Amino acid sequence: MLQVTRLVKQYKQFRAIDDLSFTIHPGEIVGLIGPNGAGKTTTLRCIAGILRPTAGSVTINGHDVVSDQAKAKSGLAFVPEVPSLYELLTVDEHLRFVAMCFNTIDRYEALRDELLERYDLKEKKDMLVATLSKGMRQKLSVACALIHNANVLLFDEPMIGIDPAGARELKDELLRERNDGAAILISTHLLDTAEKLCDRVIIVARGHKVAEGTLEQLQHMSSREGQSLEDVFLAITEDGYQTPNLPNN
Amino acid sequence: MAIKPLIFLTTRSLKNGIVRAVTSGKRLFTLLFALAYYAFLVLRPTGMRGRDPITSGATSVAMAPDVIQCVIFSFFALLTFLLMVSILTPRGGFRQADIDVLFPTPVSPRLVMFMRMFREYLVTLVTPLFLALFGGRSSHMALQRFFAGMKGNAQVVERVSAVAWLLMAFAWVCLGYGIGFYINRSDLRADRNKKVIDITVFIAVLSTIAYFAFRLKSDLSVATLVSCTEAPLIRSVFFSASAATWMAVGAMKQDWLLVSSGIAVFAGVSILGLRMALSQLPYMYDQASVKGFGAGELRVMRRNNDLYGMTAQQARDGKLKIGRFSRWISSFRLTGASALIWKEILLQTRGARFLYYFYGPLQLFMTISPAFMGRDFESLNILRTAGIMIIVMQAMSVLMLTMNSAISGFTELLKRVDFQKPLPFRPSSTVFWEIASKCIPNIFFSLIALPIIVLIRPTLWGFALGSTIFAIGLSLLVSGTVFLVTIAFPDAGDASQRGFRGILIMLGMVILASPGASVFAVLLALTKVNPAIAALPAFALCVGVTLVVSLVAGRLYDSYNPSE
Description:
The complex is a heterodimer. By secondary structure, chain A is of the alpha/beta class. Chain A contains nine helices and ten strands. Chain B is built from 23 helices and no strands.
């Protein structure tokens, strides 16, 4: 389970995230959507332990990501928007490195072959990451996230740069992980994907949470019954929209 | 054990990097060339290194203990200075891959920090080794003479000095991490702390220079120099050099209390630095992803001569303003290939201001100053010498300004090739205009220098005009050579290819410029033709060679694939 409580991230005078709270339960896919500069990537980076929160807390499976880092991170996987990988490792070595970091090297080989097969990376197993295309790197990044059986998964724009077959495979993977009990947070601009894939959506703007709920709840909240997530999103993020009092769970 | 993945990452990256360098023909060739070049620098024949002080009959002179102490202190003070200025930069040397892959894993940040410190310690240790290596046998002989002059305990002093350096490097690495983490956090308090440290280092350096200048101005002697290095101010600023000197001098005098004092200082500083670093450890990943990566990027750009990339980084930080001149150029409406020139002027006025500000006045100063040569300017010899000087200075300015403008400009061009290639121009035409556009700063300053020289010495008009005509042709040729070499070896990220490119640019310029330069020189030396006329065939030759270069480079540009 992932719990974010009153999270604040301040860069000097600029507050990128302001008092953000939400919870993602096991077996749930939640979409984090918002306009450019809303603080989505910063939120994911704070959860992943890359950025240190200025205030508030993030707990993963009950462990605080600041004070109990190793335990918190052992159940976490993070796929960045444009993954930068170690270019001088081969595909196999990259997966092995991640498995070693997460102490899951004993289960690595069986899982590796399955993931390489699933993401069309089998033939590139011994190639350097430097020689992979952008889409292949994205696939490898996803494979790295799945190599250690994490139960809290963070994806920053996961569908960008992946071919349609890969995107379909990734969607199936996400649904499979959800059914296996993983808590999944996806930051995305692709609203139709979010609509089809996510059980719940959190809309953020200028670092604040402006709405949270299922599509039906958001439609009701914005008086856009029966309309798409895109219409709801545009209505909620437009200037002048009055944010309702949201519960801080 | 959690350290295993970090060792795995380091060793595999190193192994794969070496394998990659030797399995591609171009990479292997450039690597071998670079190795051969550096081997030549280190192992070049004795005859090419100047006189050997020992075989040439120079004898070692016994030195007074205070002079020995001064030499030892100066050596360690130099190293202290280098280490001191490096503490202001963000620590860790993290890459974007570390942020995306390593940081979200449960590997302990403390372990990551110790690994980085260990790596940095090793790199710090070899710094003086590189200096000694490039000095080759000369530096070895200088050391031999120094220790020979010491008599008695030379061997002990040599060993204790080496130990002092091991301790000093470790102390500074610890202190660097402590202070570096402390001042590079992404909060306002860290900004204030950074300013305090910056000002402290600045005052320390400035007061040292002022002190030496003040003392040596009144009495420039060895005795004053020795007394300067013993002054409490200098000893405090260069505290680590003082501790290292205590150790070395203590060993020489067999004063083991002094040696222990030096060790105690290093131990204290190391513990202090480590404690500071550990207290700031929770901010390490944060500052690496917010600040450290930016600094690393900037370092790579500086290494690759990517002036435009660095300026773009400044723009992202809100530190770049669009000037009036740039706005004025922007208002022009041009069509066809001339748009390439328009784009280039805009980019140069925004991205390469440094070149204008630094090399522009330098070119003017160098080119105009020969016009002030001599008092009797009616003498034909002095007139001719001044004229030749103007031509030489113009040519040197071309080499400096155009070469820098072209290297940074073509680095930018290669990054934008996906955007520029689909434009409706022939590759050779694009290449020619790109080559020509890199000469604009040079032509601009040459044309400013021309009327100034004529105004100062009207009799020099022929030389001034001739030097300007030749400078324009030479500038085109230099720019063309830089482009040809850059497109032939485009991988700026590969250190061996980068080094090879630098050498090849120099070699190419000498070879390609020699026909034009020779014709100009022969005409000036053997005929009485006006220099402005003599410059014309040289200019034509330079332009001709540039056109050929454009054709060849155009083909390479046409087949260039940035993804390869």
